[in-house]
Amino acid sequence: MKKTSSDILKASALSVTEGRKTILDIFLSASNAMAHQDLESSCKDKYDRVTIYRTLQTFLEKGIVHTIPSSDNVTRYALCNDDCIVSGHHHDNHVHFSCDACGKTICLDETTIPSVHLPKGFRAHQINMIVSGVCKACL
Question: DSSP code of 111?
Fold first, then answer.
């Protein structure tokens, strides 16, 4: 059974507010990562940009969404998997795909990032891998 926005918020020990539910429902229905501006457009002026920003920050802190770096310096957000926890987001272990034609970014959950061996004395905090190209919808 697919989780609802209310289920996810309750499991994350967050109050179930209309704003949080609306933004989470947008993510649940999206097939790709979304930028803040995408969320603003989807909310149709129901919530201001600060409310959306604060909601995204809360979702990040609780491990509900993760950020995806991009070459255009626009932060995009995607839902975390069910097994994602705050101390070890699942996005540390998979690749993202960015379409050069339509601009959509998606998580490739089944494609893992190859292990990186750092020199002695170095410690990685995060490893990101983005593959750019053309998605199947744009081919």
Answer: E
Average pLDDT, the chain: 88
Handedness of CA 34, 20, 108, 29 (dihedral sign): negative
CATH 1.10.10.10 fits 5-133, yes or no: yes
Phi, psi angles (nearest 5°) of residue 84: -75, 135
Q: What is the DSSP string of 8-57?
A: HHHHTT----HHHHHHHHHHHH-SS-EEHHHHHHHHTTSS-HHHHHHHHH
For 88-102, write each residue's pLDDT tens digit: 454 456 788 999 999
Q: In sequence order, what are the beta bridge partners of 49?
A: none
Question: Around Cβ 132, how many Cβ atoms within 10 Å?
Answer: 12
Token pair 């893992």 is at which residue?
112
- What is the rounded CA–CA span in Å between residue 113 and residue 122? 18
44: exposed, middle or buried (Cβ count in 10 Å: 0-12, 13-18, 19+): exposed
For the whole model, what pTM was predicted?
Answer: 0.78
Write down the domain spans for the chain: 5-133
